[in-house]
């Protein structure tokens, strides 16, 4: 499992991520976001969008690398990470 986080304050709406991974989509406010239908879990706040995926890490990393303002991070996670909201990390 891995987590993708989009820093909404750093996103410039360039959308280089969209052409590298179809799980990235344009949000209503003109910034990149993640398709909730494609994610295992997704959490949105005013400052970030975070989603957990089981597969396709290489595509997510390509999207993060293509992001000029470095607004996207990809990191491995355990299925359950303490202190993380249930909808993001899977802790129940």
- What is the CA-atom radius of gyration, in angstroms? 12 Å
Name the overall outline.
globular
The CATH top-level class label: Alpha Beta
Amount of helix: 10-25%
Distance between the termini: 16 Å
Strand content: 25-35%
Query: By helix and strand content, what is the structural category?
Result: alpha+beta
Report the uncertain regions.
none
What is the CATH topology assignment?
Alpha-Beta Plaits
Order of helices and strands: EEEEEHEH
CATH architecture: 2-Layer Sandwich
Tally of contiguous helical segments: 2
Largest sheet: 4 strands, antiparallel
Q: What is the average of the pLDDT values?
A: 90
Strand numbers in spatial order across the main sheet? 4-5-1-6
Q: Please report the total strand number as a whole number.
A: 6
**Structural domain tally:** 1
Structural notes for this entry:
With 92 residues, the chain is α+β, with helices and mostly antiparallel strands. The chain has one domain: Alpha-Beta Plaits (2-Layer Sandwich), CATH 3.30.70. It contains two helices and six strands. The chain has helices at residues 57-66, 86-89, and strands at residues 2-7, 24-26, 32-34, 41-44, 48-53, 72-76. The strands form two sheets. Strands 4-5-1-6 form a four-stranded antiparallel β-sheet. Strands 2-3 form a two-stranded antiparallel ribbon. A hairpin with a 5-residue loop joins β2 and β3 (32-34). The longest helix has 10 residues, at 57-66. The protein is globular and about 30 Å long. The two termini are 16 Å apart. The model has no long low-confidence stretch (mean pLDDT 90).
């Amino acid at each position: 499992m891995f987590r993708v986080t989009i820093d909404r304050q750093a996103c410039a709406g360039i959308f280089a991520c969209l052409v590298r991974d179809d799980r990235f989509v344009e949000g209503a406010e003109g910034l990149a976001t993640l398709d909730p239908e494609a994610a295992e879990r997704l959490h949105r706040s005013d400052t970030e969008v975070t989603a957990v995926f089981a597969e396709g890490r290489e595509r997510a990393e390509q999207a993060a690398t293509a992001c000029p303002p470095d607004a996207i991070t990809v990191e491995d996670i355990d299925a359950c990470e303490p202190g993380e909201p249930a909808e993001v990390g899977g802790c129940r």
